[in-house]
Design goal:
Layout: E1 22-27, H1 33-46, E2 47-48, E3 52-57, H2 62-65, E4 73-77, E5 87-90, E6 99-102, H3 111-121, E7 130-133, E8 138-140, E9 144-145, E10 150-151, E11 154-158, H4 170-182, E12 200-203, H5 204-218, H6 222-227, H7 234-245, E13 251-254, E14 259-262, H8 270-278, E15 286-289, H9 297-303
InterPro entries: DUF6492
Pfam families: DUF6492
């Protein structure tokens, strides 16, 4: 493991704190830079209870994202998080438009796979108690305090109960099964819960315990184990570890989503965007416009009043 990323002095030791600290974690890449800039602006304006904000990017994107650094925000090179044997290349099969991560120890991985690995890996380097994960295509519209993720010494685990038992969730079921395999959970123990969303929280020490379990069971680096299957979800891994291995210890469940996301479909018109925002539930404080849909970032800025 590389050592260029040095934790901040107050993040060195796992000293129990009466008041937990929280860090926001965002994995991003160059095509989403302007979206990530908007996230940072709205986060700084609306979000409280954050000790730090980590931006996790590929090595070649570090210089670009350093423009977003400030006293509470650090850009972290994936080379300081992931094993040295995992290498990124321009993919000739995509006419060099996309990146691919190759090694002799994992399947070929795409950017969305490696972003998930970075989110897990940051737990070994950050020092905050709670890691709050927020995608770079999110914008905060309302005040939000990260204390919402902490109650009576427990961290809020996002979980939608039983949804995988219904039709139309085959991919999620595969992710859940693969998570169970990585964690050494008996195949007969089937989970029907969905843990995937944005603006969710993990307990940092639980993530490191999860990685240690994977390595103990398989006798290999946890990145090797997870990356051996291209169909995986970091949220499923963490959720199943908490619920099926730890039996929920240190966590409480919540199904409300704090971010309203436009997942699929066409880019929204101005009127559709306004209706989308107006339909936010009372607990929702942010919106997410999936970047691959192609909603113009200038339009989003104009419509939320950040021109």
């Amino acid at each position: 493991m590389n050592s260029r990323f040095v934790p901040r002095p107050d993040a060195e030791a796992d000293v129990p704190r009466q008041t937990p600290t929280a860090a926001v974690v965002t994995a991003s890449y160059a095509p989403d830079f302007e979206r990530c800039r908007l996230l940072c602006e709205t986060l700084d304006r609306c979000v409280s209870g954050v000790a730090h904000h980590y931006l996790l990017v590929e090595h070649r994107d570090v210089a670009l994202f350093r423009r977003l650094e400030n006293g509470r925000r650090t850009v972290v090179d994936e080379r300081d998080l992931l094993p040295h044997w995992l290498h990124a290349f321009d993919d000739p099969l995509s006419l060099f438009r996309r990146r691919i991560w190759l090694s002799l120890k994992t399947m070929p991985l795409r950017g969305w796979h490696v972003q998930q690995l970075r989110r897990i890996a940051i737990s070994a380097h950050a020092g905050e108690d709670v890691l709050v994960f927020c995608d770079s295509d999110v914008a905060f519209l309302k005040p939000f305090d990260c204390s919402a993720f902490w109650r009576d010494g427990k961290v809020r685990l996002f979980r939608r109960n039983g949804v995988l038992s219904g039709a139309g969730h085959e991919e999620h079921r595969v992710w859940s099964r693969n998570a169970g395999s990585a964690l050494g959970i008996e195949p007969s123990v089937v989970s029907t819960h969905d843990y995937i969303s944005t603006l969710i929280a993990w307990r940092r020490e639980t993530v490191t315990a999860m990685c240690a379990r994977i390595e103990k069971i398989h006798g290999r680096n946890w990145v090797e184990v997870v990356g051996a299957a291209r169909k995986f979800s970091e949220c499923m891994l963490y959720g199943r570890f908490v619920d099926d291995v730890l039996e929920g210890a240190g966590h409480f469940h919540g199904s409300e989503e704090f971010c309203r996301v436009h997942w699929t479909g066409e880019a929204l018109s101005d009127d559709e965007f306004r209706r989308f925002v107006a339909a936010m539930a009372p607990e929702q404080v942010a919106i997410g416009m999936q970047s691959f849909i192609g909603t113009d970032i200038g339009r989003i800025r104009r419509l939320i009043g950040l021109v």
